[in-house]
Amino acid sequence: MASSNLVLPYAVDDGSREKRFSEGIEVAALLCLAEAERKKKTGFFGGAAEVLTALSKLHYPLWAIPFASNCLLLDGMENVAYNISYFKPPEVETFTEDLKRSATALELYQSALRSHSKTFSEFTSQTEIPIKGFISDKKLLADVSPLIQDSLTKMTSTVDLSSLIPPKIDEKRAVAISEELLKHHNRIQSETKGLQFAIDTVSEETKVHVSKLQQELEQTREEYEEKISEVTAEVDKRKEELDGTTRKNGKDHRN
């Protein structure tokens, strides 16, 4: 894999400073930090004078590996790790095939749903997949990303920018880590699409059966409305006949 060296600044400029965080200020900040780390009363902040004989950038090793349209940032010293929490999804291929086969009849469709009632009741146990060296801190990534973009425009091939700290993760291992992450990423994407396909299948087939039931209900309602109308007309006719007979009998009785 072709690679290039980038030098990132020691401190991130927050953009609110009137002056850029120059190399001189960077050296002064490092000096203050070194003195503060001495944890003793003497030194820069009081006591006998001491001489700082050397101050050097060792270039902490980081790897920026292309990943899809972005890149992965890996800790070359392997001081960090990331655990992918992974749940193995249920077997959806058999589920969707059963639904497709039973789609012609409501009874078969209901039976298929019942037979898979436990398929989605719970996922299998959680699995932790450790990825050594993978940097996932969002704040750090947000800070580093524009610096990498800026450094790409200022890159030089005439200066040796190799890290003076021997990395635990070399270029070959960094590429292997990115390939491993890509493999897990693709698998999760594939299984997610499988789950979505199962959801779409259930939704579509259920809509078909609901539509059929609604049509049957409407047809049944129309048939019974017609029958009810006929019975109502017959009842009204019979009622009129009974009312006429009653009135006639009453008149004859008075006479």
Secondary structure topology:
Blueprint: H1 23-36, E1 62-67, E2 70-75, E3 81-87, H2 92-101, H3 106-115, E4 126-132, H4 138-153, H5 171-254
Antiparallel strand pairs: 1-2, 3-4
Structure, briefly:
Helix content is 53%, strand content 10%. With 255 residues, the protein is mainly alpha-helical. It folds into two domains: 6-57, no CATH class; 61-219, no CATH class.
User: How many domains?
Assistant: 2
| Widest sheet, order of strands | 1-2
DSSP helix count?
5
Coarse morphology: elongated
Average pLDDT across residues?
Answer: 77
Helix content: 40-55%
Strand element count:
4
Q: How would you spell out the order of helices and strands?
A: HEEEHHEHH
Structural class: mainly alpha
Strand content: 5-15%
Span between termini: 122 Å
Cα radius of gyration in angstroms:
39 Å
What profile does the largest beta sheet have? 2 strands, antiparallel
Low-confidence stretches at least 5 residues in length (pLDDT < 50)?
none
